[in-house]
Amino acid sequence: xxxxxxxSIIVLVALISxxxxxxxxxxxxxxLQELEKANSAEEYLQLVNAFLRIAEEQEGHWLPYYYAAxxxxxxxxxxxxxxxxxxxxxxxxxxxxxxxxxxxxxSEIEVLQGWIYQGRIxxxxxxxxxxxxxxxxxxxxxxxxxxxxxxRIYFLNGQNVLFTPEMFGGGKEAACxxxxxxxxxxxxxxxxxxxxxxxxxxxxxxxxxxxKK
Length: 213
Fold this sequence. Notes:
Layout: H1 2-37, H2 41-57, H3 63-76, H4 85-102, H5 107-121, H6 125-146, H7 151-162, H8 172-188, H9 201-211
């Protein structure tokens, strides 16, 4: 009798967990659809809050924190940038660290870390360019060691090189091999799930196309 009761409890817990995961995935998919359409500061900030609500309701998942950080980054690189880029990126950094605590040694998280460093260059390109470009490159290197097939590594590395002055080894010609490598990686990349990171291909391929002209 005890075995029957224990088995019933285990099955019930499994069903509840499965239902919870389905709701989590559904909520994430809805937010990601909105993220694809977003193009204003207000929309990105609304999405930050939406992802954080999921993080609070569904503990133990790294992706809501990751996408909260990603939404802040999109805000920084949008046309209507925040008044304090550093303050916004500090928030992105904090949420990315929460994601890292849940999922350490994660290539996608290290890619986003590199993008945060790139964002900080905008505050003072002349004064910060060298320092934060090097930090970004180090993050992309770590991401590559964790998963060399992640196309976002090469895409953002290309962006890093593209906006580095030619006298320091940057520029379009130097960036093209990265964009072309990213295009190759995107063509075979399969995200782990419907809510896993899968961004950057369209913009990268525009850059790669211009390399052939």
